[in-house]
Amino acid sequence: MFNYGIGGNERKTDNASEGIADIPQNRTLFVSKLTNDPPMRPQMVYDLKSTEEVFAYYQPSAELEFQTAEGNFINETFQFRSLGDFGKKGLINQSSFLQDLDAEATEYQQIVRQLKVNRILRAALEKPEAREALVGVLQTLIDELEAAG
After folding, report:
1. Which of 60, 122, 127, 138 is most buried, judged by most C-beta within 10 A?
2. pTM of this prediction?
3. What pLDDT, in 10s, does the model give residues 22-32?
4. What b/e string do you get for 103-127 counting C-beta neighbours within 10 Å, with b at 16 or more?
């Protein structure tokens, strides 16, 4: 026997983890353009009953152009296979450029956290002579790492 909840559509209550409901049989799904390519002609597609089937059938993709801090342009193609691909993590996972930016942002956030909690570092940065000494040590470390690798 099925265990259904009360609502507009019959839906099993034991499958609550699914975020998007399947399209009911008596409904029509209209899909908008998700690619850069114009359609040849409109077409009617039947028997697509879930969002996964829609993504598998249409295989949406988009070509995007990013500009680096130096002014160079990077072209990347994004493939959309699920609704998760439209989110922040889905986009970052598909792009090496966005992965680099995300790693850089994470590093900056860690530096800000250190500046908030590390009193010794904060005091060293407030004094000009201590700040110059710290910059000198960091530059020496950078030079050693570049020479080694």
Report:
1. 60
2. 0.61
3. 667 776 666 66
4. eeeeeeeeeeeeeeeeeeeeeeeee
Q: How far apart are CA 135 and CA 133, in angstroms?
A: 5
Any idea which residue has 């998700």 for tokens? 34
Measured CA to CA, the distance from residue 58 to residue 34 in angstroms comes to: 9
Q: How far apart are CA 77 and CA 71, in angstroms?
A: 20
CB atoms within 10 A of CB 80: 19
Strands of 3-134 (E only): list them: 61-67, 73-79
Long-range CB contact pairs, 82-89, < 8 A, 24+: 82/51, 82/52, 82/55, 83/20, 83/51
| Beta strand spans in the chain (E) | 61-67, 73-79
Q: If DSSP codes are grouped into helix, strand and coil, which group holds residue 32? A: coil
Q: Please state the domain extents for the chain.
A: 1-84
Using CA of residue 84, residue 89, residue 93, residue 98, what is the dihedral sign?
Answer: positive
pLDDT in tens, 125-143: 888 898 898 889 889 999 9
CA distance 138 to 145: 11
